[in-house]
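Section 5: illustrative case.
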């Protein structure tokens, strides 16, 4: 893959991952709003913990989808030999851990870096979402 192709395809997959994250975080927000009245009628602990648990479940699911998407990319492109390696590399790269035991060749280095950028941005967006949610939950709890 040329440098331009790596940048274009990396940007496309990053964009797909962000679209997935935005759609599912929006659904998460709607689901929490739908569940909020039911949780208000429960014990205080559940009213606080419920939205946080729901959001965390959505976030884990969202990140898992993104890791699988990148693993599919590695397998469909015949970059890695098996699903175990593809998932492992995808997860290690997405989390920016990067052990270095599996390394992409020079024609894919920039493209592979987009998986790390995807993870960095996804974790940042998820963290901001959780902070906003917890701020709202605690604000509502303090007012009640």
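Designed sequence:
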């Amino acid at each position: 893959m040329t440098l331009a192709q790596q940048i274009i395809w990396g940007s496309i997959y990053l964009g797909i991952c962000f679209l997935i994250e935005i759609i599912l975080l929006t659904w998460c927000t709607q689901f929490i709003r739908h569940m909020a009245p039911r949780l208000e009628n429960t014990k205080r602990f559940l009213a606080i913990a419920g939205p946080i648990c729901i959001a965390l479940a959505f976030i884990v699911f969202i990140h898992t989808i993104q890791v699988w998407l990148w693993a599919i990319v590695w397998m469909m492109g015949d970059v890695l030999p098996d699903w175990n390696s593809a998932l492992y590399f995808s997860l290690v790269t997405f989390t920016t851990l990067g052990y270095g035991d599996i390394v992409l060749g020079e024609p894919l280095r920039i493209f592979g870096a987009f998986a790390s950028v995807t993870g960095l941005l996804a974790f940042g967006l998820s963290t901001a979402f959780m902070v906003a949610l917890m701020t709202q939950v605690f604000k509502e709890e303090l007012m009640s």
